[in-house]
Fold:
Amino acid sequence: NAGVTQTPKFRILKIGQSMTLQCAQDMNHNYMYWYRQDPGMGLKLIYYSVGAGITDKGEVPNGYNVSRSTTEDFPLRLELAAPSQTSVYFCASSPVRRENQPQHFGDGTRLSIL
Amino acid sequence: QKEVEQNSGPLSVPEGAIASLNCTYSDRGSQSFFWYRQYSGKSPELIMSIYSNGDKEDGRFTAQLNKASQYVSLLIRDSQPSDSATYLCAVNHGAGSYQLTFGKGTKLSVIP
Structure:
């Protein structure tokens, strides 16, 4: 049971480059989330999805895009990387339609923009 | 603006003592409360959830919720060096909401 799998684990980008952070879950969870965590800070929600084909913005969506074509996958796209996007990115998922279900996190992607 | 406040610490306690971690939140409609533990360089790991006023115990951990005071706490009894980590408080946005707001976390150090 892999849970939430994120790839890559580490990446260095140059300013202006683009990349996609991958996230996959095998728990048949409808809800998926992308967070970023800056040093000494809590988690900030970037985007979330309540099911295939449905996505919505979180607290800090600027500079990012997402898609959700399947229940399992929820990739995060950075189109024009900027130094302010240097962070640790976590993907999470939770079960269906119950607000009291906890979120399960992947191991994270550590991204540096130079 | 939904806010979750935690004392950033570090909180240092001797091994075997009780560690008390506190969290306040601004949204009176919040109904679900979670404590996550995060070791340095690792992802958050759920350790406790609580939804009703009062205490909830799980092994050495006790979560306490007071909705009237908008306050949730985590007690760790018989603290061990392996408990040294950052503890994140997370609160849902209100009835029916699946979005969480996280505090910045409290760093706990258990001294052998």
Summary: The interface with chain B takes residues 31, 35, 40-45, 48, 50, 58, 90, 94, 98-108 of chain A (CB under 8 Å). The two ends of chain A are 36 Å apart (CA to CA).
